[in-house]
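Structure (tokenized):
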């Protein structure tokens, strides 16, 4: 299969490569038998090595930082996997799903329906690649081509999403790519579409505050990447999902990356003198919508 992913799809391939690398670790937190196949099928060159080294201390510093980044993807993937398992809901929506393989590799409850929404190019590539691999989903899976910054909710309903039913929402690696305005609009849409008892697991956007120091850092980043500064500034002062969901009556809790390091025994640094993982990560939010009130 030739390379058929570009733009944001390249990021999805890089995440799949990180999952493949995680799966190769002797202490792996995630077993994804399809990730490496997806990377090869994409034809996209990714910076991650194919095998986990015997000793992280022995690899060059640049490669070491990539390996730690892959370790974070492994930690993030396992945490969200566990949230979906413990939630036990039969309707789930993965927004900005990329090359996610949860529909195939998780043990879903009977009657589970999983909706994956992403760019049409990414969705099409995943469909073709998994079909070529002979992979069969472990649930009823619906791929929904769409853009979360446009009118996506109607597409979800058309695909069979059941309004009013408890839903488990997954926002993984998505909010950091959206403006603060679009982040808030997306959270509002999730609230509006959720039935009583719905759940959400959200990877937060790092909290960039618009200060002179932030502008200086963003100007440097803009010069290095070619991304316009005004686009970067639209990502400052993002909404706090805990506050947004809490105001809507959801019970929302913050989950720090350092807490996940302890939970899974996975340090995202070489030694204790390095900066804790929370310094450069947004962390996560888990939330539960209020249950349906009994009729009087």
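Design, position by position:
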């Amino acid at each position: 299969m030739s390379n058929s992913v570009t733009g944001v799809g390249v990021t999805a391939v890089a995440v799949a490569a990180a999952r493949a690398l995680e799966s190769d670790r002797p202490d792996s937190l995630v077993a994804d038998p399809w990730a490496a196949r997806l990377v090869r099928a994409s034809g996209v060159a990714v910076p991650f090595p194919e095998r986990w080294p015997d000793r992280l201390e022995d690899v060059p510093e640049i490669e070491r930082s990539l390996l730690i980044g892959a370790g974070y993807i492994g930690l993030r993937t396992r945490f969200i996997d566990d949230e979906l398992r413990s939630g036990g809901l039969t309707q789930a929506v993965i927004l900005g799903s990329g090359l996610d393989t949860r529909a195939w590799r998780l043990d879903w409850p009977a009657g589970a329906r999983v909706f994956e929404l992403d760019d049409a190019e990414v969705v099409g590539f995943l469909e073709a690649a998994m079909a070529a691999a002979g992979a069969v989903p472990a649930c009823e899976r619906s791929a929904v081509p769409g853009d979360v910054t446009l009118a996506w909710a109607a597409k979800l309903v058309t695909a069979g999403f059941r309004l009013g039913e408890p839903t488990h929402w997954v926002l993984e690696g998505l909010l950091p790519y959206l403006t603060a305005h679009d982040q808030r609009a997306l959270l509002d849409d999730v609230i509006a579409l959720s039935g009583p008892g719905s759940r959400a697991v959200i990877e937060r956007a790092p909290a960039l505050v618009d200060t002179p120091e932030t502008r200086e850092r963003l100007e440097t980043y803009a010069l290095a990447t070619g991304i316009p500064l005004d686009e970067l500034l639209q990502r400052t002062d993002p909404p706090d999902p805990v506050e947004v969901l809490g105001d809507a009556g959801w019970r929302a809790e913050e989950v720090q990356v350092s807490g996940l390091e302890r939970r899974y025994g996975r340090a995202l640094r070489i030694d204790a003198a390095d900066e804790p993982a929370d310094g450069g990560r947004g962390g996560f939010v888990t939330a539960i919508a209020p249950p349906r009130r009994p009729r009087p």
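Reviewer-requested clarification: The chain has a mean pLDDT of 86. Residues 8-204+240-288 form a domain with the Rossmann fold fold (CATH 3.40.50.150).
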